[in-house]
Design brief:
alpha/beta
Length: about 100
């Protein structure tokens, strides 16, 4: 990349900058097949809008019974067309329950 900013003025600016950098990275490598972004349903509402504005198809990942991202849905959604994953931490749902193996 010729340049980037590491000081966005707001969260949505950071999302937008990150998605534009992801898009530029894949396009610079000639990888036009990577056009999908995974976004948990617990993410902030600006996330799907930002990804869409940057030309990506948004795939929504559901939450599990504990409010965490459904890992099976995540595994199922990963493929050669995946450009990125947007995660909001802490979850917009306010759920921070983690299971330990």
């Amino acid at each position: 990349m010729k340049g980037c900013s590491l000081a966005p003025m707001a969260g949505a600016d950071g999302e937008f900058a990150g998605m534009l950098m992801a898009r530029a990275y894949h396009l610079d490598r000639g990888d036009t097949a990577r056009n999908k972004v995974l976004i948990p349903d617990s993410a902030h509402g600006t996330n799907p809008a930002t990804a869409s504005m940057c030309g990506f198809e948004v795939i929504t990942l559901p939450s599990d019974a504990d409010g965490n991202t459904d890992l099976e849905a995540l595994r199922f959604s990963v493929g050669d067309d995946l450009a990125g994953l947007m995660i909001t931490l802490p979850s917009t749902l306010g759920a921070l329950r983690f299971k330990h193996p």
